[in-house]
What does this fold into?
Amino acid sequence: MRFFIDTANIEEIREAASWGILDGVTTNPTLCAKEGREFRSSIKEIADIVDGPISAEAISMERDGIVEEARKIASIAPNIVVKIPITEEGLAATKKLSSEGIKVNMTLIFSVNQALLAAKVGAAFVSPFLGRLDDIGHDSIAILYDMVVVYQNYDFDTKIIAASIRHPLHVTKAAEAGADIATVPFSILQQIVTHPLTDKGIDRFLKDWDKIKNL
Ligand code: G3P
It folds into this structure.
């Protein structure tokens, strides 16, 4: 499974990239607004740091506007992927953009049928939002399993990004289900590196080493 980081924060991106585990970045308007920086220059900076797909979201709501905005976003850097919410207009725009070679990450995906439609119009990625499904009492992981099976049935090239990851178990379950990618907030990346027994083990080794180092 590939790991993306779900943030627009440059320090978090640099830090996660320095661990050697980072394959890409996803942003959305909420994450960009949180950083309070100009959109184009911050996406460019992110695209220069990480050698992998960088998702940046279009906010237009009708097809011609989405296509025009997506072309501008895609021109920021060669590794940009344009995030487009699934709607009838979003599907039409994605069909056009994918025929032009612009990669789309179809976002706000909550059902297998939506993922199926996104694949049919040539989206490079789909982003099912696990946490938001769980929030309303649905079983996000069961939906993710079904999505993986349906994509396998038809040999779609579209890659599944498990998004809206809220805790470490989402990461494990996404990997078990066969998601191609998990996009994970920085705090959860930090959480999955650690284990209390690892910390305890290091502490014990260091204390024992202290006893013998001057022998
Ligand atoms: O990648 C989408 C993700 O950012 C949404 O996460 O926690 O706002 O549902 P959340």
The first helix runs from residue 10 to 18. DSSP finds eleven helices and eight strands in the chain. The mean pLDDT is 97. Residues 6, 26, 28, 127, 129, 131-132, 163-164, 183 surround SN-glycerol-3-phosphate (CB under 6 Å).
